[in-house]
Amino acid sequence: QVQLVESGGGLVQAGGSLRLSCAASGRTFSSYAMGWFRQAPAKAREFVAAINWSGDTTTYADSVKGRFTISRDNAKNTVYLQMNSLQPEDTAVYYCAVVRGWVKVLPKTADAYDYWGQGTQVTVSS
Fold this sequence. Notes:
It is a single chain. This protein is mainly beta and 126 residues long. It contains no helices and eleven strands. It is globular, with a radius of gyration of 13 Å. The model has no long low-confidence stretch (mean pLDDT 95).
C-alpha cells in the first residue's frame, strides 16, 4: 500500500508560481513512476505531468509544457510540481498518483495509476 499526501496549493495571481509537493509512504517509492493530474469544477480529471522512477524521463500535457516542471527526490520520498506563469485556467484540484509496477512509457491516463492522494486546491486569480 502506498499513501500520498499533497501540499503546497493555494491562491496566486496570474503570472505567479507555486510548488506542489507529494509525500509518499512506503520503502519502494523510488521504484514507481509518478504523475500529477488536475480536475477543475465540472470537468474531467486531466493529465498534467509524469516522471519515471529515476527522474530522468518526464512528460507533460501540452497545456503546461514550458511552464510546469515535475521532479522527484527519492531520498525524501517526494515528487514535486513547480508551476510557473500560472493562468486562471490552471485553477483546479491537483492530485498526485503512483503507478505500481514497471512502465515502458509514462502513462497519461488516470486509469493507469494505482494510488492517489487527496488533492490540493490551486486557485489562480486574474
